[in-house]
Write a structure and sequence with these properties.
two-stranded parallel sheet; single chain; alpha+beta; Uridine Diphospho-n-acetylenolpyruvylglucosamine Reductase, domain 3; 131 residues; 19% strand; two-stranded antiparallel ribbon
Length: 131
């Protein structure tokens, strides 16, 4: 399993692999075959920036939702959606990729409604910036 330490290393790995299975906390494991290259985002974690007065934060894909919740809670804030597997260690990247927002979606909206921007790697290994 490849465990990059930055997005450029992850991009290169995807670019050089035919098929890739990305994993973080492995709370949403799909089926895989033996020919699939594995990419772990565990090392790509942490809150990069947090502005409580602006209600915004920037975090890496491997950051656990519980780490984000803890930082927000210290400032009287919370994630308004409640995705499944959050307590099991689900990551921000896995939650965004799966689009799972939990029952809170009915009241507050889905996860995608709270994304201002994202940087990700597409299937060709290109780093894409949106927002």
């Amino acid at each position: 399993m490849n465990e990059p330490t930055n997005i450029e290393e992850a991009s290169e790995f995807v670019r050089s692999s035919e098929t890739v299975l990305v994993s973080g906390a492995e709370t949403k494991r799909p089926r895989e075959d033996s020919a699939t290259a594995r990419l772990s985002i565990k090392s790509l974690s942490g809150i990069v920036e947090y502005e409580p007065s602006e209600y915004t934060f920037t975090a890496l894909a491997g950051t656990s939702l519980s780490e984000i919740e803890e930082a927000l809670c210290a400032n009287g804030q919370y994630l308004p959606f409640d995705p499944p597997s959050a307590e099991a260690g689900a990551t921000l990247g896995g939650t965004v990729a799966s689009g799972l927002s939990g029952p809170g979606r009915l009241r507050y909206g889905g996860l995608r409604d709270f994304l201002i921007g994202a940087r990700f790697i597409n299937g060709a290994g290109q780093i894409i910036q949106g927002g």
